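Session log. Operator J.P. requested a structure for one protein chain; no other inputs attached. Running the standard single-chain path with token output.
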Amino acid sequence: MAARSQLGAAARPLGQQVFSIQRFSGENYLAAAKSFHYLETSQQDNMELILIQTISLITTTSFREELRGYMFSRYVKDDARLRYSYLYKNIKILIDPAHITRLTPGQAKHLLNGIATLRDYLRLIGYKRTADAIDDYLKQLRKIAPKPQKVRVLDYEVDTSIIDKGLKEIKQIKNGKLWKILALISFFTGLRGTEIVFLWNNWRRLRKIYHDGIVIIELGYNRKSKKAWITMLPEKLANIIMENSSSTTITYNAIDNLRDKAGVHVGLMRKVHLAILSKTMMEHEIKLLQGRVSEITVRHYTRHLRVIADKYREAYKEYFTLLEEL
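Structure written below.
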């Protein structure tokens, strides 16, 4: 009866099934490997058991070190780090397929890449049957994984509904002063999550220009194709950051909590930022503030920063009242 119940769970549509699993210590490598080898050479076709036994092996310290070494030898450092961290941070994906539907498209992409690398490594070390099972599972996960939407600049230029969505997310924050501040930083700057963390933690040492109620900040944040050299925000918000950042250091978990607990999405705020700036700025000026220009290109705009700041103020002036609620 128990076996029939397990098979029934595995037969349910992907996204609805949640496999039962005991907690593995992740340390008894030899026992896990022996059990895993038995499953690999048996005639067992139950995907549930294969995935559960896979977790029992890959969560051991020894296997994690082996897999990590494989990833870092095969991919560039940043790519390998993302594959490894997302795989183990979301390890329950192997027993709860619906978990992937709760991730953002970017997170789902890194997780799927991590699972694909696990499949390749298992095949490399001789576990072909298990690798094939994970490959079939991976194909099904890709079907239900969130897909990225194409950003069409002209849509935001004429459609203000995206701005309304952003304002709604900010106004629904009831508790948590820090979350409200971080949400407003995201709204007024359009910075990416890591850039917001960098801005907050390095606020006092960053160079700034104060210009008619707007603060121009030299971030100098260079991360491959993401290059946030300059950002701008209202002087009142700058004063709020000054008062609070000195006593509180944040990590990227704060951005995750901003989304998961406060309901504010940094990705949406970047689109809101683009839509608001499109009222007064040209495309190259928006790209500068969105962190989409090279170091060489940004030098051509430095002489015009005060002019761009004037355009920024004009675009954002109707939203300055949001700062009065802090």
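Operator note: Confidence is low (pLDDT under 50) at residues 1-30.
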